[in-house]
Design goal:
Order of helices and strands: HHEHHEHEHEHEHEEEHHHEEHEEEH
CATH architecture of the largest domain: 3-Layer(aba) Sandwich
Shape: globular
Number of domains: 2
Radius of gyration: 21 Å
CATH class of the largest domain: Alpha Beta
Helix content: 40-55%
Largest sheet: 7 strands, mixed
CATH topology of the largest domain: Aspartate Aminotransferase, domain 2
Number of strands: 13
Length: 401
């Protein structure tokens, strides 16, 4: 019988999803969500909100559907959204972006990352530098592209890169540096020194920078600083974001890439053979969302900051050492005090829903096998839930202390 080609094995292996005999395993998110449902646990695992986004954005989607925006959008994206993305980059960051040549709309940020890697990476000789722990799709997509993953560790509790380790990781073999800032899964926001060093190294070694900025409006102190705004960075940087986290519409899968026209064209050349186009009425809705007043964007950060604080206090009261999240949905805590000999965070998280009634994600799901032991006691909790849900989870965790 004809064998199934091996690309899926490379992808699943990169994501840590191959079980015995090359049997694909479910992602940790699917596993923990199923456990939460089966046990009735409070789900602080998978990072999706439990409240709808702004009424204006929901209404814009409904109006677009009623108006007949239900067929294929143009390959680059609905012109209204292209213009809104360009206006957003200028409004918040002072970046001048040509909506006709320097923006492409994607099926969420994950497709944007996939199309970018497939467009710019040329096989095993190329290296892709990432910051570890990393969003799990990075390793899978790097494996799919055939490139070599080079992780730079971020360590508890501040999760800032060691600049000497970063300098050793970036070489003339480096094709891309992927920068997720604000950072999932740790909640860190990179320092000005780290941002400057990333750009310096990219220039020195002629590497491209790919930024994953989906949490750009969920920074708790100060404002997000895109790498593309730093001197010398814009001409070598592709910036990726999406509307899912900003507008609590993760199911709509509307993302975008901005950057130099020749790089965006390369991404588009791949994207058109992945999804071709996507989510026409939701593109109109996200365009409306990007034009909301500044008070909205400040408000979502303030709201999530309060949720972060409530979650951190609950974890602290339950005996966890807590990393102070500077942005994103997520807070990382050290569960060392809860682990039995021989256990790690994966064992802990699989037992937690049944034992306590709370679901979380082990940080070991976001690291390469060689570095798993360095993160063996760390757990990620999601704060993007209603306050009463976080309070209930905190009470359950305290009750187990």
């Amino acid at each position: 019988m004809r064998q199934i080609p091996g690309a899926w094995r490379r992808t699943a292996r990169g994501a840590g999803l191959l079980g015995p005999g090359d049997v694909p395993a479910p992602t940790i998110f699917a596993e923990m969500t199923a456990l939460a449902a089966r046990t009735g646990a409070v789900n602080l695992g998978q990072g999706f909100p439990d409240e709808d986004g702004p009424a204006e954005v929901l209404a814009a989607a409904q109006e677009a559907i009623r108006a007949g925006a239900n067929q294929y959008a143009p390959g680059r994206g609905v012109p209204e959204l292209l213009q809104s993305v360009a206006a957003h980059q200028k409004r918040f960051y002072g970046l001048d972006v040509d909506p006709d040549r320097e923006v492409v709309v994607t099926a969420g940020a994950t497709e944007a990352l996939a199309a970018t890697l497939l467009a710019l990476v040329d096989g095993p000789a190329d290296e892709v530098v990432v910051f570890e722990p990393y969003y799990d799709a990075y390793a899978a997509l790097v494996a799919l592209s055939g490139a070599t993953l080079v992780p730079v560790p971020l360590r508890f509790p501040d999760f800032q890169p060691d600049l000497d380790e970063l300098a050793r990781a970036v070489t003339d073999r480096t094709r891309l540096i992927i920068v997720n800032d604000p950072h999932n899964p740790t909640g860190a926001v990179f320092s000005a020194e780290a941002r400057a060093e990333i750009v310096r190294l990219a220039e020195r070694h002629d590497a491209w920078i790919v930024t994953d900025e989906v949490y750009e409006h969920l920074v708790f102190d100060g404002a997000h600083v895109p790498l593309a705004t730093l001197p010398g960075a814009a001409e070598r940087t592709l910036s990726i974001s999406s509307g899912g986290k900003t507008f609590s519409a993760t199911g709509w899968k509307v993302g975008w890439v901005t950057g130099p026209a020749d790089l965006v064209d390369a991404v588009l050349a791949v994207k058109q053979f992945l999804t071709y186009t996507n989510a026409t009425p939701f593109q109109h809705a996200i365009a409306a969302g990007l034009a909301l007043p500044g008070a909205y964007f400040a408000g979502i950060a303030a709201t999530l900051r309060a949720k972060r604080d409530l979650l951190a206090a609950g974890l602290h009261d339950a005996g966890y050492a807590v990393s102070p999240a500077a942005g994103t949905y997520f807070t990382v805590a050290d569960a060392s005090h809860e682990l039995e000999p021989g256990q790690d965070a994966g064992d802990f998280c699989r037992a937690l829903p049944g034992r306590v009634g709370v679901a979380a994600i082990p940080l070991t799901a976001f690291v390469s096998p060689a570095h798993r032991s360095e993160y063996a006691s760390l757990v990620r909790f999601a704060a993007c839930k209603r306050l009463e849900v976080i309070a209930e989870a905190s009470a359950r965790l305290r009750g187990s202390a």
